[in-house]
Amino acid sequence: YHSSTAHRDVTLFISKENSAASYATPFAAPQNMLAAGWTNYKFMDYVKIGTPMVVLTYIVVAILLPVFMPY
């Protein structure tokens, strides 16, 4: 890989993983909207459960990124 290509790939991977980690609001993904519509979940329920999941996802991506995409 050329250096700029490697950096671009890593940047795209991080962006993709972070955008897929949208658990903290009911508006982040269609499945969250479906769950919000059929249940009595409140906005803060998503924040309470989703925020730790987002943090965990970021940590896992930061740890595994160098393993699968070495510079």
Concise synopsis of the structure shown:
By secondary structure, the chain is mostly helical. It has three helices and no strands.
Protein architecture, described:
Helix content is 75%, strand content 0%. It is mostly helical and 71 residues long. α1 (3-20) packs antiparallel against α3. The longest helix has 26 residues, at 43-68. The termini are close together.
Count of extended strands: 0
DSSP summary: helix tally = 3
Distance separating the two termini? 9 Å
Mean pLDDT: 76
Percent in helix: over 70%
Q: Could you describe the largest sheet, including whether it forms a barrel?
A: none
Cα-based radius of gyration, to the nearest Å: 16 Å
Unreliably modeled segments: none
Q: What sort of overall outline do the alpha carbons produce when their principal axes are compared?
A: elongated
Order of helices and strands: HHH
Report the β-strand fraction as a percent range: under 5%
What structural class should be given to the helix and strand makeup?
A: mainly alpha
List keywords for this structure.
mainly alpha
Task: Reconstruct the topology from this structure.
Elements: H1 3-20, H2 30-38, H3 43-68
